[in-house]
């Protein structure tokens, strides 16, 4: 089998980034979300990113048109029938993902691989919601997708060898570097990154320093490109909280307890950059 057509399910910041990179590397893309306005928002984000590349003379206007022409909108999950692989990038919630995978299992063609971009959730449990657990795999891109080189690839207990090979080859074809990791909460990336972000939030919560000063320390002292609180806002505080909860319940260890301030911000709807407010304010809301 050769992967030619990709459905990206969830047209938020990760889904639109994945769709953009797939289209730029020759794949036909079906960009799917619950409502047309969400798909349209994803398409606009992709068009904006491609326009920036045109301005920087990295691609021609004709390239941009060709890439955008490869992306088809979808609000009907049955369009998965046309895909060789579905890459799911809906919200970080196990029930939503299991439900989506059960539906995709019913609707997609027999050969279709079902991949999830989950940040932390168990691939084996998501796979168990389908009758094709050998074709379910984790394909974890980093944000922003067009820039970051890593893709973590995570096999579930039953993932078939040829499915692993095809997904790895696809990641390479997207000019990414795949790294295989085992199916444990948070994989490698978020098991290490997210406790650091959570600790940075505790540092603010306990009044040790302001968000600006915490970020300055990590940028100037540790050469991080972004401070941990700016990064939390960039990832989305809802996603950060979900990941901490997965680590906490998955390992049963209180060292992963989410900071109450993180919970409070999420309850307030302060989800970071995407809602215009988190540890910082943004004028894109
Ligand atoms: C939660 C999870 O499950 C896993 C995760 O993804 S965790 C998050 C992982 N990501 C990170 O840690 C990102 C950390 N931050 C960074 O690496 C950098 O700050 C950054 C790449 C985001 C921006 O870089 P910067 O030097 O501060 O800003 P800037 O000069 O504007 O951008 C650098 C390049 O990235 C591009 N870029 C920045 N943001 C972008 C975006 N959202 N989409 C596409 N391209 C983007 C810029 O166009 C620019 O490209 P060129 O150099 O080719 O011109
Ligand atoms: N943010 C990050 O830095 C990273 C996130 N991830 C993972 O990627 C996934 C998506 O994250 P992100 O893009 O940031 O989140 P966003 O909130 O930006 O986007 C999620 C999108 O999925 C849509 N959605 C929700 N439920 C469904 C469904 N049942 N079917 C189809 N679409 C649905 C949402 O619609 P609505 O607006 O209605 O909710 C929204 O458009 C998560 O699993 C996250 O953990 C992985 C790597 C990095």
UniProtKB/TrEMBL annotation:
Matches recorded under Gene3D superfamilies: N-(1-d-carboxylethyl)-l-norvaline Dehydrogenase, domain 2, NAD(P)-binding Rossmann-like Domain
Positions of NAD(+) binding: 10-15, 33, 92, 97, 119, 143, 274
Pathway: Lipid metabolism; butanoate metabolism
Xref: InterPro entries: 3-OHacyl-CoA_DH (IPR022694), 3-OHacyl-CoA_DH_CS (IPR006180), 3-OHacyl-CoA_DH_NAD-bd (IPR006176), 3HC_DH_C (IPR006108), 6-PGluconate_DH-like_C_sf (IPR008927), 6PGD_dom2 (IPR013328), NAD(P)-bd_dom_sf (IPR036291)
Keywords: NAD, Oxidoreductase
Domain 3-hydroxyacyl-CoA dehydrogenase C-terminal: 186-282
Source superkingdom: Bacteria
3-hydroxyacyl-CoA dehydrogenase NAD binding domain boundaries: 5-183
GO molecular function: NAD+ binding; oxidoreductase activity, acting on the CH-OH group of donors, NAD or NADP as acceptor
Pfam families (alphabetical): 3HCDH (PF00725), 3HCDH_N (PF02737)
Gene Ontology terms: biological process: butyrate metabolic process
Residue ranges crossing the lipid bilayer per the database entry: none
Residues at the site labelled Important for catalytic activity: 140
Keyword Hydrolase appears in the UniProt entry: no
Family per similarity comment: Belongs to the 3-hydroxyacyl-CoA dehydrogenase family.
Listed name of the protein: 3-hydroxybutyryl-CoA dehydrogenase
């Amino acid at each position: 089998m050769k992967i030619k057509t990709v459905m990206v399910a969830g047209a938020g910041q990760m889904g639109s980034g994945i769709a953009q990179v797939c289209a730029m590397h020759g794949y036909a893309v079906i960009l799917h979300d619950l409502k047309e306005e969400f798909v349209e928002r994803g398409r606009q984000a992709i068009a904006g990113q491609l326009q920036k590349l045109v301005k920087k003379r990295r691609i021609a206007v004709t390239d941009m048109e060709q890439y955008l022409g490869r992306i088809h909108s979808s609000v009907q999950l049955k369009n998965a029938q046309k895909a060789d692989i579905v890459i799911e990038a809906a919200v970080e919630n196990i029930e939503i993902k299991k439900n989506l995978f059960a539906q995709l299992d019913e609707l997609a063609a027999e050969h279709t691989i079902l991949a999830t971009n989950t940040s932390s959730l168990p691939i084996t449990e998501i796979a168990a919601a389908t009758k094709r657990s050998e074709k379910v795999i984790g394909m974890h891109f980093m944000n922003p997708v067009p820039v970051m080189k890593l893709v973590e690839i995570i096999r579930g207990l039953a993932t078939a060898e040829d499915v692993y090979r095809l997904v790895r080859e696809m990641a390479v074809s997207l000019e990414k570097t795949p790294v295989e990791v085992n199916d444990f909460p948070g994989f490698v990336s978020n098991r290490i990154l997210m406790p650091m972000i959570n600790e940075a939030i505790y540092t603010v919560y306990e009044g040790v320093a302001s968000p600006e000063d915490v970020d300055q320390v990590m940028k100037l002292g540790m050469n991080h490109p972004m401070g941990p609180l700016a990064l939390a806002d960039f990832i989305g505080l809802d996603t950060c909280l979900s990941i901490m909860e997965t680590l906490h319940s998955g390992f049963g260890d209180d060292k992963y307890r989410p900071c109450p301030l993180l919970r409070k911000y999420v309850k307030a709807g302060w989800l970071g950059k995407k809602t215009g407010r988190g540890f910082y304010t943004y004028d894109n809301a």
